[in-house]
TrEMBL record:
The protein's annotated pathway: Nucleotide-sugar biosynthesis; UDP-alpha-D-glucuronate biosynthesis; UDP-alpha-D-glucuronate from UDP-alpha-D-glucose: step 1/1
Pfam family, one: UDPG_MGDP_dh_C
Organism domain of life: Bacteria
Record's keyword terms, sorted: NAD, Oxidoreductase
InterPro entries in UniProt: 6-PGluconate_DH-like_C_sf, NAD(P)-bd_dom_sf, UDP-Glc/GDP-Man, UDP-Glc/GDP-Man_DH_C, UDP-Glc/GDP-Man_DH_C_sf, UDP-Glc/GDP-Man_DH_dimer, UDP-Glc/GDP-Man_DH_N, UDPglc_DH_euk
Domain spans labelled UDP-glucose/GDP-mannose dehydrogenase C-terminal: 328-432
Assigned EC number: 1.1.1.22
Protein name: UDP-glucose 6-dehydrogenase
Broad class of enzyme this protein falls into: oxidoreductase
Length: 448
């Protein structure tokens, strides 16, 4: 069997590497129009940072895993085609700020229709709005090739930073297809067969295409809702003297609630949560479900509120003026163990602090200096260590929960700072009482 995946990003790259690792008899090609990205996949410096990925790529590359810009050739040769291109939120026109930009997906569908003459299974892997399969089908029909292709949905549930273990031991694999026709049933079986090489059959769920598409949006909406719920409670904790970690621990012991995804923070980021909720909101409005749309919109509003609330706390604690003050930001990625900055809370917080006149210096173990400047301001200084960032600063903000920030020598950092020295732990990974003993004015999220 030959698989071709269009799109060599955070989803396509790791997913295909795992299939290649687990299925040596399948030839897997990952194609992308972006030459630089493909060159990086073929080099010792992969274009994305993901723990454990490098080893797998090095083990399978040029054996049964290939990275190429020859998009058409590999599409033509493949039995199974995954579409794994970006679906950013539209920034213009109808649905701007909410609907997904499907131009890349449509482009792939057109290319498949143009170059393929034999039957193929086409799988949407990108996060797409519900009924995208219909769009793809329409394109195929337009080329009078509608009957050649079976369209399936196989949403990705991997989380960045833990992508490899998520792919290796998924809670479930979801495959949506048309089980009412023989061809549809056969296509479903084929894709189930690929995953069944390492995922137990009972963990592979098959549904109709729309359930599968919607489940992806709903899973992310529920996860984001938990973060916004605990973040909303963090404001109540700060006002009342309760401790948000204690509250999270207490409620998480209820097996109906469960302990995961209850970590209060400066707000969720990443390429999926906000985009998927906006998609859900757009879908609800499309169906005239205004109250349902409003319900989910609140999850995003609380996330924005939380970022603003944090920034206000920083400004207030620094005597309402940041003019000429040096503020060290530790962590810029949207979470630890990734170099991805999409929708990271740090972007918004830095921009607001710059507007207040602060001099920002950022340190992140993985994010590129140019990227940090591009997302904030050319004036932002990028340091090559935490100690370098913090020296001479009035305040330290911990915005990503990188493990190395837990083990810093905070006494030495304190010595190097302007007094009174402030520290704001946006991830609740530090011991505030210890920091106060050192001499810091220490603040956390949801801590009195
Ligand atoms: C998410 C989903 O988890 C994954 O299943 C889906 O396929 C893609 O979207 P990802 O965006 O990579 O994955 O990261 P995730 O671990 O879900 O975290 C998202 C954001 O929420 C991060 O900014 C994280 O720091 C934040 N978060 C998460 C919290 O603030 N508190 C928590 O308790 C959990
Ligand atoms: P994700 O996080 O969903 O994987 P990325 O934006 O990281 O998304 O990756 C999507 C990739 O898809 C990009 O590298 C982009 O160049 C590629 N891409 C978009 N459209 C096409 C296309 N028509 N043919 C090939 N590659 C494409």
């Amino acid at each position: 069997m030959k698989i071709c995946c269009i799109g060599a990003g955070y989803v396509g790259g790791p997913t295909m590497a795992m299939i290649a690792k687990k299925c040596h008899d399948i030839e897997v090609a990952v194609v992308d129009l972006n030459e630089e990205r493909i060159a990086a996949w073929n080099s010792p410096n992969l274009p994305i940072y993901e723990p454990g990925l490098q080893e797998i790529v090095e083990e399978r590359r040029d054996k049964n895993l290939f990275f190429s810009t020859e998009v058409k050739k590999y599409i033509k040769d493949a039995d199974v085609i995954f579409i794994s291109v970006g679906t950013p939120t539209k920034s213009y026109g109808i649905g701007a700020g909410q609907a997904a930009e499907l131009g890349y997906v449509e482009g792939c569908a057109r290319m498949i229709a143009e170059v393929c003459d034999g039957p193929k299974i086409v799988i949407e892997k990108s996060t797409v709005p519900v009924r995208t399969a219909e769009v793809i089908q329409n394109v195929f029909d337009g080329y009078e090739k509608g009957d050649l292709f079976e369209i399936l949905s196989n949403p990705e549930f991997l989380a960045e930073g833990t992508a490899i273990s998520d792919l290796e031991n998924p809670d479930r694999v979801l495959i949506g297809g048309d089980s009412t026709t023989e061809a549809g049933k056969k296509a479903l079986e084929t894709v189930v067969g690929i995953y069944n090489n390492w995922v137990p059959r009972e963990n592979i769920i098959t549904t109709n295409v729309w359930s599968s598409e919607l489940s992806k949006l709903v899973a992310n909406a529920f996860l984001a809702q938990r973060v916004s719920s605990i973040n909303a409670i963090s404001a109540v904790c700060e006002a009342s003297g309760a401790d948000v970690d204690e509250v999270a621990n207490a409620i998480g012991k209820d097996s109906r609630i469960g302990p995961k995804f209850l970590k209060s923070s400066v707000g969720f980021g990443g390429s999926c949560f906000q985009k998927d909720i906006l998609n859900l909101v757009y879908l609800c409005e499309h169906f005239g479900l205004a109250d349902v749309a409003e319900y989910w919109r609140q999850v995003i509003k609380i996330n924005e509120y939380q970022r603003k609330r944090f920034t206000r706390k920083v400004i207030h604690s620094l005597y309402n003026t940041l003019q000429g003050k040096r503020i060290a930001v530790l962590g810029f990625a949207f979470k630890k163990d990734t170099d991805d900055t999409r929708e990271s809370a740090a972007i918004y917080i830095c921009r607001d602090l710059i507007e207040e006149g602060a001099d920002i210096v950022v340190y992140d173990p993985q994010v590129d200096a140019e990227e940090i400047k591009g997302l904030t301001s050319e004036k932002v200084e990028v340091a090559s260590s935490a100690a370098e960032a913090v020296a001479g600063a009035h305040a330290v903000l911990v915005l990503t929960e990188w493990d190395e920030f837990k083990d810093l020598d905070y006494s030495a950092l304190y010595e190097s700072m302007v007094k009174p020295a402030h520290i704001f732990d946006g991830r609740n990974i530090l011991d505030l009482a210890e920091l106060e003993k050192i001499g810091f004015n220490a603040f956390g999220i949801g801590k009195a």
